[in-house]
Fold:
Amino acid sequence: MAVTTRVTGVRTALQWAALAAGAVFLLAGILGFVPGVTENTGSLGFAGPGTGALLLGIFQVSVLHNLVHGLYGAAGVFMARTHRHARNFLIYGGVIYLVLWVYGLLIGDNTPANFIPQNSADNWLHLVLGLAMIALAILLSPRTAPGGREN
Structure:
């Protein structure tokens, strides 16, 4: 008889939050390659501050930036399968975004250290995302999985 680790049943609010966040990051990663949604896709470089591509005309992106968003989003969708993994995705993902915010404040927009790349709009978005993800994890964590067990 095969044993499965797949969790079935109702998702918790925390799992829905992680799923939504993952889906948004995955979508952002895809849209970063779409002309019209991303301006100047002809200048989309692999990495570094030289890329002139702007997602929604605001956020500086590169191939690396888009791939990271896509992989991060896929991880969020996958981790939303269990309450514990969803919480970890939101907490640790939020911490990573806060680190990226600080990093973005410390480096200049046009320096080689800006390899991701990120501009001022990206920096402030990273702050909001980091705080929101951690807040969701804290606010929704007390709600355990259906049946009173923690997955």
Observations:
- The longest helix spans residues 83-106.
- Strands lie at 38-39, 54-55, 59-60.
- The chain has one domain: 18-41+50-143.
